[in-house]
TrEMBL record:
Highest rank taxon of the organism: Bacteria
Record key words, sorted: Membrane, Transmembrane, Transmembrane helix
Statement: the UniProt record of this protein carries the keyword Transmembrane: yes
Entry protein name: DUF808 domain-containing protein
Pfam family, one: DUF808
Statement: the UniProt record of this protein carries the keyword Transmembrane: yes
TM stretches of this protein: 73-102, 139-156, 162-186, 207-235, 255-276
InterPro entries to which the protein is assigned, alphabetical: YedI
GO cellular component: plasma membrane
Length: 285
C-alpha cells in the first residue's frame, strides 16, 4: 500500500514536471525577442572604458544577482496581479516601456546636442551607479518577459505557473549574464590566445583584439535601439489604437520591428518633452 502511494506520488510529480518543461519551452520561445534585446542592452550597460578589467566580472555578477532579486519580486506580483488585478498589468508595463524609451531618447539627445563638449572630460559613472542603472533597466525587461510568459501559461495550474516562471527567470538570467560575462572578457581571451604557440590560436586572438573595440562601440548603438524596440513594442501590443494603425498598414513581418522602433522614439520624445523640463524646474527649486 505504501509503495503504491509512493509510486502514485512520483507519477504525479513526473506529470507536473513534464507539464512544467513543456510550458517553460513554449513560454521561452515567446520571449526570445525580448531576451535578445535584454542581452544587447545589458552588455552595453555593464561595459565601458571607465571600468577596470578586473572589475568587469564582479559588476556582471552584481547585476545578475540584482536580476534574480528582480524576478523574485516580480513573479509573485505578476501572479497576484493576473488573479486579482489583471487590468493593472498593461498600464504598469506601459510605464516601464515609456521609461525605456525616455532613456533611449535622452541618450540620443546627449550624443547629438553635446558634441561640442566631446573633448571635455566626461563625468565618470561610479560602479555602484552603473550597477543600479543596469538592475533598474533589467527590472523593466524582466517584467515584460514574465508577463509574456504568463500569457502563454494562462489556463495552466498555479503550481505549473510558479515552477515554469521560476525556471524561465533563473534560466534567462544565467543565459543572459553568462553571455554578457563572456562578451566583456573577449578581449582578455584574445590576449590569452595570442600568447599560445599555436598559429591558429594567435590568429583568432589577433582577430578578437581587432574586432572587440568595434564590437563594444556597436553595443552602444544596439543597446539604444533595443530600448526603443522593447519600449515601443510594449505600446504597439498593449494600446489598441496603435495596434490597429500598424495592422492597417499591412507591413510585412520583417518591418514590424521598425514600427516598434518608430513608436518607441515617438513615446520617448514625448516623455523627454515632459520630464526634462520638469527635472530642470525641480533642480532650480
Amino acid at each position: 500500500m505504501a509503495f503504491s502511494s509512493l509510486f502514485t506520488l512520483l507519477d504525479d510529480i513526473a506529470s507536473v514536471l513534464d507539464d512544467v518543461a513543456l510550458m517553460t519551452k513554449a513560454a521561452t520561445k515567446k520571449t526570445a525577442g525580448v531576451i535578445g534585446d535584454d542581452l544587447a542592452l545589458n552588455a552595453n550597460q555593464v561595459s565601458g572604458k571607465d571600468i577596470k578589467p578586473e572589475r568587469e566580472l564582479p559588476i556582471v555578477w552584481a547585476v545578475a544577482k540584482g536580476s534574480l532579486i528582480n524576478k523574485v519580486i516580480l513573479i509573485p506580483i505578476a501572479l497576484l496581479l493576473s488573479i486579482y488585478l489583471p487590468a493593472l498589468i498593461n498600464p504598469l508595463l506601459m510605464i516601464g516601456g515609456a521609461y525605456l524609451c525616455f532613456e533611449g531618447v535622452e541618450k540620443l539627445l546627449h550624443k547629438f546636442l553635446h558634441k561640442a563638449d566631446s573633448n571635455e572630460p566626461q563625468e565618470v559613472v561610479s560602479e555602484a551607479d552603473k550597477i543600479k542603472g543596469a538592475v533598474r533597466t533589467d527590472f523593466i525587461l524582466s517584467a515584460e518577459i514574465i508577463i509574456i510568459a504568463l500569457g502563454v501559461l494562462q489556463g495552466a495550474p498555479t503550481l505549473t505557473k510558479i515552477l515554469s516562471l521560476s525556471a524561465i527567470g533563473i534560466g534567462i538570467t544565467l543565459f543572459v549574464y553568462g553571455l554578457v560575462g563572456l562578451i566583456v572578457k573577449l578581449d582578455d581571451i584574445g590576449l590569452w590566445m595570442m600568447q599560445k604557440k599555436s598559429a591558429l590560436s594567435q590568429s583568432i586572438g589577433k582577430s578578437l583584439l581587432f574586432i572587440m573595440p568595434w564590437f563594444m562601440k556597436s553595443l552602444s548603438v544596439i543597446g539604444t535601439i533595443a530600448m526603443f524596440l522593447v519600449g515601443g513594442g510594449i505600446f504597439t501590443h498593449t494600446v489598441p489604437y496603435i495596434h490597429h494603425v500598424i495592422e492597417g498598414l499591412q507591413l510585412p513581418a520583417s518591418l514590424l520591428s521598425i514600427a516598434d522602433l518608430v513608436v518607441g522614439i515617438i513615446i520617448g520624445s514625448i516623455a523627454c518633452a515632459i520630464i526634462l523640463p520638469a527635472m530642470k524646474l525641480f533642480k532650480r527649486k
